[in-house]
Amino acid sequence: MQRLLLLAVVGFAAQLVDGSLGMGFGVTSTSLLLIAGLSPAMASASVHLAELGTNVASGFSHWKLGNVDWRLVLRLGVPGAFGAFAGATFLSQISTEVAKPVMAAILGALGMYILLRYALKPPAVAQARRSPHTAKFLVPLGLAGGFVDATGGGGWGPVSTTSLLSAGKTAPRTVIGSVDTSEFLVSLAASLGFIINLGLLGIEWGIVVALLAGGLVAAPIAAWLVSRIPAQVMGVAVGGIIIMTNLKTLFDASQLSAEQVTVGFILFAAVWVAMTAWTAWRHDRRRRAEAAAREAAESDWAI
After folding, report:
1. How many structural domains does the chain have?
2. What residues contact 204, with CB distance under 8 A and at least 6 apart?
3. Cα–Cα–Cα angle for 287, 172, 145, rounded to 5 degrees
4. SS3 per-residue string spanning 132-164
5. What is the pLDDT of residue 100?
6. How far is it, in rounded angstroms, from Cα 241 to Cα 91?
7. Transmembrane residues, as ranges (predicted)?
């Protein structure tokens, strides 16, 4: 029972991050399930089955708040579904010994990308509530995001959300809401791929239900928070958490000594804490500068 409650907390935290940042549920949950001892394929299958429910809740919440561009949802989600099915089939066919370090490497790389992306070059902010991107851009993006999502146990958000935000053509709340909503198609296709290739007998439904329960509670809160929290700080914090949860598997695969592993963890933790603090300070300085500029403009107008 204690394990299931802990997984519900994981689902809550992961969905809170995912719904407000546009990424994080899959990579966070899968990383922790791997630590708990699940095989890569079963961890990814469990997460994607749970995401079927959290995606609906998150999508509905974002839609109610006006954060969804349905044209973007379809143009991105449909090719994403094909990529996810292919990724689930691929992961189901390789051995656990090979899949575990491969998945940890994918998750670690995604975590590093998220951390550096938000620490060094935060995504541009646009105001357009409808995405101007065409199928020429969205179809390959969806295919790549879906494949990475299924093979890594997560990745739809890190690939899709960051790419769309980096383009700087669509409002962040619309990007996050639309990517979260389109993820239902990706999760559905990945789940079907795992079920066809692995069956249902090996899936621990208690894990699925616990993750789903926590995620359902967090979904409406995250949709409300999307325009009210500093995404840069959360991006750096979440990226570091994802890397930390996968470092042990990567260190084990590289056959480092216990002393080297300890030093590696300490060094990364120090760098991560410093980057998080620096990002928070930079965000606060920019916020103060913008407030001062507004006050000066209002004073000039009053004169």
Report:
1. 1
2. 38, 42, 46
3. 130
4. CCCHHHHHHHHHHHHHHHHHHCCCHHHHHHHHH
5. 67
6. 24
7. 29-51, 72-90, 102-120, 233-251, 263-281
Average pLDDT of the chain? Answer: 79
Going by the DSSP 8-state scheme, the letter that residue 22 receives in this structure is S
Residue 33's CB is within 10 A of a number of other CB atoms, namely 24
State the Cα angle at 112 between 109 and 116, rounded to 5°: 145
* 254 three-class SS: coil
What does the alpha-carbon distance between residue 142 and residue 199 come to, in Å, rounded to a whole number? Answer: 26
Residue 63 has a CB neighbour count (10 Å cut-off) of: 16
Question: Taking the CB of residue 125, how many other CB atoms lie within 10 A of it?
Answer: 10
| Token pair of 83 as six digits | 């990529």
Segments forming the whole domain that contains residue 8: 2-302
Q: To 10 degrees, the CA torsion angle through 50, 54, 55, 60?
A: 160
Q: Which two tokens mark 28?
A: 């966070």
Residue at 59: amino acid letter: G
Largest CA distance in the chain: 74
Residue 180: name the closest of 261, 62, 259 by CA: 62
pLDDT in tens, 12-28: 877 777 766 666 677 77
How confident is the model over 160-212, as pLDDT tens digits? 877 787 666 777 778 888 888 998 999 999 999 988 887 776 677 888 888 88
Cα 144 to Cα 138: distance, rounded to the nearest angstrom: 10
118/139 Cα distance (integer angstroms): 25
Confidence of residue 75 (pLDDT cuts 50, 70, 90): very high
pLDDT, position 126 = 52
- How much is the pTM? 0.70
Residue 28 near residue 242, CB atoms below 8 Å: yes
**Residue 149 CA from chain centroid, whole number:** 9
